[in-house]
From TrEMBL:
GO terms for cellular component: cytosol; protein-DNA complex. It comes from the Bacteria. Residues 19-133 form the Response regulatory domain. GO terms for molecular function: phosphorelay response regulator activity; transcription cis-regulatory region binding. SMART domains: REC, Trans_reg_C. GO terms for biological process: regulation of DNA-templated transcription. InterPro entries: CheY-like_superfamily (IPR011006), OmpR/PhoB-type_DNA-bd (IPR001867), Sig_transdc_resp-reg_receiver (IPR001789), WalR-like (IPR039420), WH-like_DNA-bd_sf (IPR036388). This is Response regulator transcription factor. The modification 4-aspartylphosphate is found at D68. Residues 141-239 bind DNA. Keywords: DNA-binding, Phosphoprotein, Transcription, Transcription regulation, Two-component regulatory system. The keyword Transcription regulation applies. Residues 141-239 form the OmpR/PhoB-type domain.
């Protein structure tokens, strides 16, 4: 179901309504949210499943999205992730009946801006929405590049030339740390501080193990050497991203 509704004051000439998309599959909750937001003066559109929400968001501009996690078709995590992959920076407030820390972390890591657990107070939801709308869309972070090696923080995609590369969370964190300071030697202490928690000892081989696995994905298949070992100091990413020295391995 898709519906749009704006309150009378937004019908005035020259006034641009603040537009909200509510994505909620439970009819009573969807109606409640639409009514409450409309009474606050927002123009409200609704969708009741994930694919529909993506279709609407791709053809209309919204000031914020209220997104339930438990949706048919695509869940809220995937809807949010796809919006971010397509460059949509609209603020997203996630709603869920689950209160697990892992769910909150997954939502925020997927690109959500805020998180509210059901049951919730309408006053709190409205206050959080006002804060998100005042903040506006998050500025898209710049793509990090060294030669043909690219890391996009907005979508968390990594590419070598036209080839996409899948990294683990720790491999991604290491590569991002190195790409933010190309040509600079980063010690093991610095990498541990940026990519691990305080309980990790810089004297362990955890950094070396993950650097080795990162090289196996961004260097060896392409016949390059982007990450250099600086003996007695740490690691450095070449500014040129590692020029190919041998033909790339067949994919």
């Amino acid at each position: 179901m898709i519906s749009g509704e704006a309150c009378p004051q937004h019908g005035q000439e020259g006034v641009v309504p603040v537009r909200i998309l509510v994505v909620e599959d439970e009819p009573k909750m969807r109606t409640l949210l639409r009514r409450a937001l409309t009474e606050e003066g927002y123009a409200v559109d609704t969708a009741d499943d994930g694919p529909q929400a993506l279709s609407i968001a791709q053809v209309a501009a919204f000031d914020a999205i209220v997104l339930d996690i438990m949706l048919p078709g695509l869940d809220g995590f995937e809807v949010c992730a796809q919006l971010r992959r397509h460059g949509q920076r609209v603020p997203v407030l996630m709603l869920t009946a689950r209160d697990a820390v892992a769910d909150r972390v997954a939502g925020l890591d997927g690109g959500a801006d805020d998180y509210l657990t059901k049951p919730f107070s309408l006053d709190e939801l409205l206050a959080r929405l006002r804060a998100l709308i005042r903040r506006g869309p998050a500025e898209r972070p710049p793509v990090l590049e060294a030669g043909d090696l690219r890391l996009d923080p907005a979508t968390r995609q990594v590419r070598r030339g036209r080839t996409g590369i899948t990294l683990t969370a720790k491999e991604y964190a290491l590569l991002e740390a190195l790409l933010r300071r190309p040509g600079t030697v980063l010690t093991r202490d610095m990498l541990v501080e940026q990519c691990w928690d305080f309980a990790t000892s810089p004297y362990s081989n955890v950094v070396d193990v993950h650097i080795r696995s990162l090289r196996d994905k961004i260097d060896r298949p392409f016949g390059t050497t982007a990450i250099e070992t600086v003996r007695g100091a740490g690691y450095r990413l070449r500014r040129d991203g590692g020029r190919p020295t041998t033909p790339p391995a067949p994919s």
